[in-house]
């Protein structure tokens, strides 16, 4: 385990929320770390606040408020999946607070890119699906096939529709990010291999540290111990 206690702040994925990191809390505590897993507006226990105007900026602002009110500093910022969009924005706005950035099977946007710019193939399907979700929100993607039946039941009961604007709004960055960055690629891929391009990009870029995990897309659910060991190693 790493030598000094760290604070990890998680920007969670789409349709999900802080609750999805439940298995990670005892593991982080045992390693002496603090894990902060806030939920974005309109999702999880904040689903009652959902409305059509929620977008990527809303979720970035959610996290910035947590940083302010929890007085977080020198912390490790984690972005999982869609949370890579959020984490990139947070790291841009809170440059003096974020110590390092870890993307877990996540989107890595540049200035001016939306999630659907990075995943063009999903654009028509997402917009079509939104028509069934009051016209402004998208029902959840299926869980990976290696998710246990218990976890499928747990997840299915709690995942909610995601505001389409979160996927459509383009990220604005003030300047390129220069802080230490790592990418964790989950190798149990689906045929779409949505995160393959980011794995290739970061693997061949000296500005990044690149890692792989033998897990499907949400290792916080399906492989928490493996993910914990890797996060501890990277942060240490």
């Amino acid at each position: 385990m790493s030598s000094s206690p760290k604070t990890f702040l998680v920007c969670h994925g789409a349709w999900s929320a802080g609750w999805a990191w439940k298995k990670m809390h005892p593991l982080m505590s045992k390693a002496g770390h603090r894990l902060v897993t806030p939920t974005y507006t309109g999702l999880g226990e904040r689903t009652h606040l959902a409305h059509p105007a929620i977008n990527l900026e809303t979720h970035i602002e959610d996290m910035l408020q947590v940083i302010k009110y929890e007085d977080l500093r020198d912390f490790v910022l984690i972005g999982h999946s869609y949370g890579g969009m959020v984490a990139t924005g947070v790291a841009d706005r809170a440059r003096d607070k974020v110590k390092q950035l870890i993307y877990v099977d996540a989107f890595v946007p540049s200035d001016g890119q939306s999630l659907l710019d990075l995943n063009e193939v999903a654009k028509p399907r997402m917009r079509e699906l939104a028509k069934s979700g009051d016209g402004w929100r998208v029902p959840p993607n299926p869980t990976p096939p290696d998710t246990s039946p218990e976890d499928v039941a747990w997840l299915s009961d709690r995942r909610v529709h995601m505001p389409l604007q979160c996927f459509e709004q383009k990220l604005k960055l003030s300047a390129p990010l220069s802080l230490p960055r790592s990418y964790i690629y989950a190798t149990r891929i689906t045929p779409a291999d949505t995160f393959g391009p980011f794995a290739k990009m970061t693997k061949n870029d000296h500005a990044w540290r690149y890692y792989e995990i033998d897990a499907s897309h949400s290792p916080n659910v399906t492989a928490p111990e493996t993910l914990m060991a890797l996060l501890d190693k990277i942060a240490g």
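Residues 29 and 35 are 8 Å apart (CA to CA). The longest strand covers residues 98-104.
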